[in-house]
Structure formats: structure tokens, C-alpha cells
Amino acid sequence: MNIVLLSGGSGKRLWPLSNEVRSKQFIKIFKKKGAAPEDGVSYESMVQRVYRQIRSVDPEADVTVATSKSQVSAIYNQLGTDVGISVEPCRRDTFPAIALATAYLHEIKELSADDAVVVCPVDPYVDADYFHCVRDLYEAARRGDSNLVLMGIEPTFPSTKYGYIKPFKHPDGSTGYTFTEKPAREKAREYIAAGAYWNGGVFAYRLSYVLRKSRELLGTDSYQVLLQNYAGLQKISFDYAVVEKEPGIEVLPYHGTWKDLGTWSTFTEAMEEPVIGRGILGEGCERVHIVNELNLPILVMGLKDAVVAASHDGILISGMDESARIKPYVEAINQQIMFAEKSWGSYQVMDADKGSMVVLVTINPGHHMSYHSHARRDEIWTILRGSGSTIVDGMEQPIKPGDVVTMAAGCRHTAVAGKNGLQLIEVQLGDEIDSADKQKYEL
Amino acid sequence: MNIVLLSGGSGKRLWPLSNEVRSKQFIKIFKKKGAAPEDGVSYESMVQRVYRQIRSVDPEADVTVATSKSQVSAIYNQLGTDVGISVEPCRRDTFPAIALATAYLHEIKELSADDAVVVCPVDPYVDADYFHCVRDLYEAARRGDSNLVLMGIEPTFPSTKYGYIKPFKHPDGSTGYTFTEKPAREKAREYIAAGAYWNGGVFAYRLSYVLRKSRELLGTDSYQVLLQNYAGLQKISFDYAVVEKEPGIEVLPYHGTWKDLGTWSTFTEAMEEPVIGRGILGEGCERVHIVNELNLPILVMGLKDAVVAASHDGILISGMDESARIKPYVEAINQQIMFAEKSWGSYQVMDADKGSMVVLVTINPGHHMSYHSHARRDEIWTILRGSGSTIVDGMEQPIKPGDVVTMAAGCRHTAVAGKNGLQLIEVQLGDEIDSADKQKYEL
Q1: Which residue out of B275, B299, B348, B353 would a mutagenesis test of the A interface target, given it has the greatest number of A Cβ atoms within 10 Å?
Q2: Complex ipTM, two decimals?
Q3: Rounded to the nearest 5°, which phi and psi values hold at B64?
Q4: What is the pTM of this model?
């Protein structure tokens, strides 16, 4: 099957584990099954879990992630470079994103307009059964009995936060659907009694259908034209622009586990063990979760119903009830990004001051950073671990621990990791150290 | 006056701010009065506060700190190098410590045996009034009416943790004293009703008195002999060995504030503001204190009666009641020391792995580290900030930001800070990186 995963924006609600460059779907909290014991415990992220679940249902699944530029590095880092990525030049809600991804599949991946695709969020916390249902949606869309096939999630409580899909009978006896976003509790109860589903945001269709909608609503179905004019497109959801106006809809029900891990409360519920990373739950702790990405021990005593989360961006300690309301506090924190996953590895800021910055750079085996220069800073690398080579102003040199490479402003440079990867300390020096001061070159 | 401050051992009860190399008296939590506004808020430690209070009462006070080798660097760093230090080769309780310090004053500082000294703990949280009382003790000891003059602290509650000094009448009408350690609550009440004091561990005497006790109990009053035989001396407290057996005692009362900041509960009570360092008390916080030495924001929500403390050694989050019982948990944490104050500045471990360690080294203006070498590791310095010089195998070179200095194993080296101080990144590389692998040389 063809599947498009919508990888949404940054989240402040799971701060400090999510930030502008790391959305919640990239946080590694799920214990990896079947990891070799000698590797120790290892964890996978939401996006890795979903990707693995898709492959378990359909090993041949063709997966494309629709996302913004800022997530591309993390996706390649976590899923490898086989995955397709439809890059949105900026954020324009789900209709433009799905239109762009559909054009990408048709023109870049060269899928036939008669072929079908399922679009689903990248971050549902679900059983593998969910993806069996996703495959059924795909098959139904390919048969083409309806223009759109949706997943209806069986509600487990009268949520006021989700959208509802309510069936009704047309005079001819056929079934139609109406859509309501976030009803009041009492309305939600009524809907559930009447057989309504939650709208899980999973849509299947033949490419031709959304290409037609793109021509009708955006004036074009050309990938290049959409890409170029993307910033000018109206922000509008696929539900509002398409789904709610479409009479030819089929709904397939899903009965299994489905959770939106968007808050600390639901996120910690999905943790198999109360502590990830270095953490000790001492005397008097009840229902406390620790997620610690720092290499420091955390000792918690006498807390109840609380979450402790620590990353290079900050430390959160919150009662579970209050944790849903951290957003305004987090928005007021002005913290530079201290850690980022790149397609080739990661960087972590160790020290930052006026005129200097110290970064621990990790390059994955066989990978290399971009070939680049900086106009307003010098850099000095000291190799810590592993081996590989550097290319500085076109000249390649092998490197090993203890080697020092100095790069004056303007000098082009990259580091390439050998088969065991590479770690180095980068000292940046300059009056204006700015991540935007970077010019990339072809190698 | 002459004053000896007894600077006691390491504390795990205020972890993570105290550790094996940093006792609680070196933690900076008291807002400095009269700091220039352009310097921002700055804080002083217990030992700095006490030292300042002594100087405010007697600008000419001759202060000696009696302590172990491991605290010497921190004391010089925090008090400057004018302070006298009587270094105990190992810990042997207060009688050997006071005997050694007294011999030090007599032989090294050349005080007359008729001169007096007051010994007091380095870490009482008190008003300046306390040191007026200390001075009165000194004057009384110098007059020599009694062999020993003690401070009696007026009890504020029937504590079961302190020692009590109880007055009684001799048949001749004169006053004598008896001593009881840690009585039960009911006994404590009785003592207080009978006019007893807490024993604050403050003793004043003429040097000749303790020199005589040293000869009687330790067989010598020679500084060098005590120093050489120190490890063989019996562990015994001054109270037990001397005070409780001495009939000629005078007690001067002290009525002001007196707190032992030995637990998180009393420690946070002494904080003038609930947050030191980067910390935000969000919705639902009541009676929460944050002490944050990390350069990371801490956001706390929905906690009551709790302390949050973060340092390079770890992070503690504890209910106030439970915080008195952290010791066994902390003892189980096996964390290498990540931060240490040295006489010349500080070092902070940024990254440690098999075969390599990265350290941020800060050298105070005009100071330098010891001239030394390592047998089993190479080191590479990259200068970050400031200026000064390096001396490597006898050769001096000026240094500035961006300079790199490489030192192979065996090579002798030091760095000297200029008038603006110096910061550098030190990369250590070797199969056996060990703090004991260090040979010092004269410059």
C-alpha cells in the first residue's frame, strides 16, 4: 500500500522533550522489542514505532512523510533515507499538505492517478491492528466505490476534544455522515449513543480524487507549482475543505487502542516502565514518571501523580493535572536549542557564552555533515572518538582521536565518519555566532 | 581576636549541592549584600558569610580554618589566601583537630601560649550578634578566670538532636555544669525549664590550656609530631575528651538566631527568596524552593512543600518531609564528581566516556593551576575566553582565544590567567583516565 504520514508541528506541551526542532513524535520512549541484550535497553520514538508497525502489516508499504523542512533531518536520522519525504516549504494546515503530498506521489514517485493512498497522522499510539484497518482503507479506496474512505474510531468516552463522524440514513436507505468538531460533553454522549465514531484523521482516496480537488480549490495539481506558491495557499484543513463537503464517503471502524499522546498525562500512560534514563523513585513516590535524557542522576522522593522530564533544553517537574497547562510558561522560556538530531548524527551544545560556543558533534557511521563554511566564526575540532576524515578547502585528511583541525572563517569543511562513527568537540569562536551563518557547498 | 573555624566533613544530606569535595558550607545560597548592581545578583556561601560576619565584628580578627586537605582549594577559592589553614591529614574528630590547630597557632603563627583563641563551627546560620558573643568568649578566655569558656545557646524548642549544658549549684554556691547529648523530648523539656542551654560547640581558651591537654592525652604538643602521627590518634570529640571533665568552666549565653542548616528543610528556610538560579514556580506551587546551579531552566508546577536542587552531580526533587532521608539513596548513586572548586578557579566535566573526558577549566584572574604532568593521558587545550600564558616543558607562550595547546603524556604543563581570567576546553585522551594520575612540580 501507499501511505502518507502527516508529521505535524512542534509541540510545547511535552517540553522539555519537544521543542521547535524536535516534535513529540521523535521522542524515544517506547522500549524496543527484540533488541539484542548486549545492546542494553533501547527505545524507539513514536515515528519509529508507527513505521515499524506499518512494515509489520505490509513489508512492501511505500511510506512518504509529509512534513516541514525542520523535521527532515530527524526523519532521516530515525527512519533512514529510504523513506520518501514531501517537504512543505512552510506550514499551511492539512489540505495544502495533502494536496502537495499527493502531487509528490503522482509526479515524483510516479504513482498512477488510479492508484490509492492512505493519509494518516504520524503520532497515533495504537496496536498493529490499526494498520490492518489502514490497509483495509487503502484496498477500499483502490476499489473506488466511494471517493473517500475514512477510519472511524470507536469512542471509549464522551471526549470533548475530538471530532465525531455521525452516520445518518438518506431517504434512499444509504448511509451518509455528518461531522462535528469538539462537541460539548452532553452532545458527545448523544452522538456515541447514536453510533458515532471519533474522526481519527485517516483518509484513503485515489490520487485522481485529490488531484481534482487541488485543481478545483488551488487552481493547479502540479507539484512544482504547488511547491512554489505554497506560502500563498490558504490555511485550511482537509476535513473542512474536502471531507465535510463530500457526499461519497465510506467509513471503516477501528475498535482497538487509540491514544493521542499529546499531553504529559497520556504520554506517561504509554510508558511501559515509570523511569526512562537515570532516575530513582525514592520513599513516598506514587504514580511518578521520570524521563531523563541528561547524563545526571535524578532522585525523586515524596511526590505523587507527577512527571519529571529532563533534557538539554530544561527540566520539568509537574503535578499531572497541572502538566496540561505548561504551554504559556514554556513560551516564556527563552532557551537556545541545546540538542538537535541531524540526518547524519546529532549535536549538543555543552557551553555557550558571548564570543564562543562548545558543541559535542556525533556523526553516525558512514555519514558526514554538509560541506559548508561560516563567514563570521572560526572553528576548531578536537577528535574524541572513532575515526574518519575531514575535508577542508578541498583537501581530505584521515583523522583519529587527539587530532586537531582548525578552520578559519570562510574555510569550507566537513567531517566524514568511518565505520565506527565519529565524535568530536567543536569550539566556535566569533563575535556573532549564529546558526544562520552557514553556506553549504556541493562536495 | 584569634578564631579557629572547624570546617567539617562532606555532607550527603544536601545532595546534589554537597558531595565528597564540596561540603555544605561552600554552597552559595545567601544573597550578597551591597554587590554592585551591574554585577547582577550574586551569592555567598556559609563560610563566606561567617567570615564576613567575623570581620564586621572585628576587622583585625586572625582567622584560621581547621579542615581536611580536600577542602583547602575551596577555602582559598572562597576566602582568598590570607586565611590560615590548619590541615588535618585525615579526619580524627574534634579533639585531635583542635589540638593540631592550637599547636599550629602556637608554632606556625607564633601566638603566645598566654594568648587566647575561640574555636567555633564554620557553618552556624546566625546574626552578627553571635560574633559579638564569640568576641566576649575570647575576652573572657584571655582574662583567664576559667580554663574554658563556652557559648550557651538559648533553646527555642526541646530539640532531641543537640547537646545540652545544664547549670547546677556547687555546695559553695558557685555554678557548675553538666553535659547531656541528645536527650529524649521529655528530658529536653525538663532541662530547658531548669535553665539549660544548647551546646553550640563554641569553646574559648588560652593556648596553654589545650597545649597541656595535648601533652596529657596525646603525649605531645608539638605541631610536627601531631601532624606526623595524626592518623594514629584516637577519634575523640573535644566535648568528651576535655569539656565534660573540666571543672573550671564559664558559660556565656547567646540569645539570637542560631540554625544548623544541615538538612534541606532548614537550608531552604534560610533562603531569602524561593528561587536561586534559573527556575520558574508555575501554577499550583506552594512552599517550593529551587536551587539550580545548571544553566538550564527548571519549570515546577503543582508541587507543595518541596525542594528542587540541581547541580552537575544530579537533580533532587523531594517533598520537604522526605528530604531528611535522602542519605541512603544518595550513597547508592555512583556518580563521578562533575564539578570542583580549586584554589585557582574551577573545573567542570562536560563529557566523560571510555578513553576520553572533556572538561571546562576556569582560571581566576592572576591565578594558575599547578605545574604538573600525567603519565597515562594526552591533553589538548583550546582557549575559549580571556588571555594569559602556558608553560609547557619549561617554555612559556602567550595564549589567546582560538589557540590550541597539545600536551603528550609525560609533558609538564600549566596555564596562567591574565588579569581577565582564562577559560579553556581540556580534552583528555587515554585508556586510563584517572584523577590520581598527576605528578606535581615546582615552577
Answers
A1: B299
A2: 0.84
A3: -125, 135
A4: 0.84
